[in-house]
Amino acid sequence: MAGRIVVAVDSPEPGARMLEAAARLAVRRRAELMGLYVEERAFLDLAGFPFSKTLRPGGGWEAVDPATMQRAFETRAAELERELARLAERWRLRWRFQADRGVPAECLLASAQEADMLVLARSRSRQAPRAGSTARQALARSRIPVMILDPALSEPERVTAVFEGDERVLAAADDLARAYERPLEVLAVPAAPDDTTRAEAAAAWLHARGWPERVTRCETGRDLGATLAERAGGVTVVGASDDGELATLVDAARGPVLVVR
Q: Could you tell me the CA-to-CA distances from 48 to 38, 54, 57 in Å, in that order?
């Protein structure tokens, strides 16, 4: 394993946690890590209008100054770059950092053209964490694997492959499980109510690669999202499918999700 992982980061505090999680993954995959920070161009454009105001932390409104916003952008970018440099020195990572201004999804996809994996965070919702708009666009448009992480980052207990017949999902899950040194299990989704071929194929695939044959056949007629919602504590690996269905599965899974292309 090698290549490059691109991780999208925003504000310093959650951005630093994202960088650390991505750095751990890059170490295990022996990959270069690229941190990407994007300032939404629309914010700076709005700051140029005389009616633009912002709410102060202590209450009350004040005019938005484009020069102040620019300095804030540069300050945040510098903080994140220093954090990435610190992590890279600590773990002896190859690394680079890029700060852009524009539409986040467009900048991310453009920067990832030569990468092997994108890493993004779920939105920081007060309710259940979900894939945000940038992550959803990346899921729909990216030509490389996309990993969606949760705000609460931790080491996975296991890696689960959702197998619907695509062996690339098994191979990606195998790579992650070996990188994290965690157990690998397979959730086989039957093609028909009485189908056992996928479960049997997954068991044979695991056996051939020295893994215990941990295969669970998904209950026929049950929503896959509901099944994933019960399986907390691990990384879920799924194949790319219908965009709407894929976003639903990513939201349902409790923990990081890797979408294989």
A: 19, 13, 22
